[in-house]
Amino acid sequence: MTDSLQVPAGTLLHLLAWEISPNPTNRDELVWTVVVDPQHVGGMVRLRGHTCAGPVPDCARGWCFEAQVSVAAIHANTDGTR
Q: Among residues of the chain, what percentage have pLDDT more than 70?
């Protein structure tokens, strides 16, 4: 059974370094969500968002952050445990 992962655009996620792949900077990130792919693969999901300046980004691109992120991390943020 797979649960539905729905994250509204603009949701702020605090992600720990080990929950992000690839993570070339090896640091925690605050990411304002643009889109989360509903397809789970190995406990990870593709996330696109902004790390640049909040829900209304300073950058001119559709997103400046794209990585595989732990589904558990997203749930921790959306259910209020983080």
A: 89
